[in-house]
Design brief:
The chain has 4 helices and 11 strands. The chain has 176 residues and is of the alpha+beta class. The longest helix has 11 residues. Helix content is 22%, strand content 39%. Strands 1, 5, 6, 7, 8, 9, 10 and 11 form an 8-stranded mixed β-sheet that branches. Strands 3-2-4 form a 3-stranded antiparallel β-sheet, with no helix packed on it.
């Protein structure tokens, strides 16, 4: 479980990279069928079910793709890290803005990200599985953090949850 750990770097390196980023606000997305064409995404109510495979291929060749997407809550987003150890950072928002205090929490979390990743790996090292997992993204709210891992060797993903204690420290709550 350590091949993709963050301990090759210092938390301060991830923090410096985070501080250099602009946070993009990703708007709410309703679940459903969407058409992508010319860089634009449009929700469509019904796909023409009478399309043949040949007709769908023609749409694809014209740069038109239709795909079902899951619901996505509004959030702030950026990517931090380095070529071999990068991950997304998702931040809590409301009405198109980062919520008050979230940047301070994010700075606190990222300033400890190597240690938090090491704690997850230490507490789960007794697992018989070696999935060669890496952090895909971290989801940060005012009171909790999820380090979201994915595996390269099998089709699996999971979260490691930390809860903010009254004294401001982060307590590893478990996997989910």
């Amino acid at each position: 479980m350590n091949e993709y750990s963050l301990n090759k770097y210092k938390s301060s390196e991830f923090l410096d990279d985070f501080k250099s980023k602009n946070i993009e606000i990703i708007p709410y997305q309703e679940a459903g069928l969407y058409r992508f064409q010319n860089g634009k995404k449009t929700k469509i109510e019904n796909r023409n079910s009478s399309f043949t495979m040949a007709q769908l291929e023609q749409l694809h060749h014209r740069g038109i793709v239709e795909i079902k997407l899951h619901e996505e809550v509004e959030h702030g987003y950026c990517e931090v890290g380095f070529e071999d150890r990068n991950f997304g950072v998702r931040l809590e928002t409301k009405d198109g803005q980062l919520i008050d205090g979230i940047m301070e929490i994010a700075i606190d979390v990222i300033s400890k990200i190597v240690e938090m990743d090491s704690e997850v790996r230490e507490k789960t090292k007794d697992s018989n599985e070696n999935y060669e997992e890496a952090i895909a993204y971290i989801d940060i709210s005012l009171r909790e953090v999820e380090l979201h891992y994915y595996a390269n060797t099998v089709n699996t993903e999971w979260g490691a949850y930390f809860v903010r204690q009254e004294n401001g420290t982060w307590f590893f709550e478990g996997l989910g």
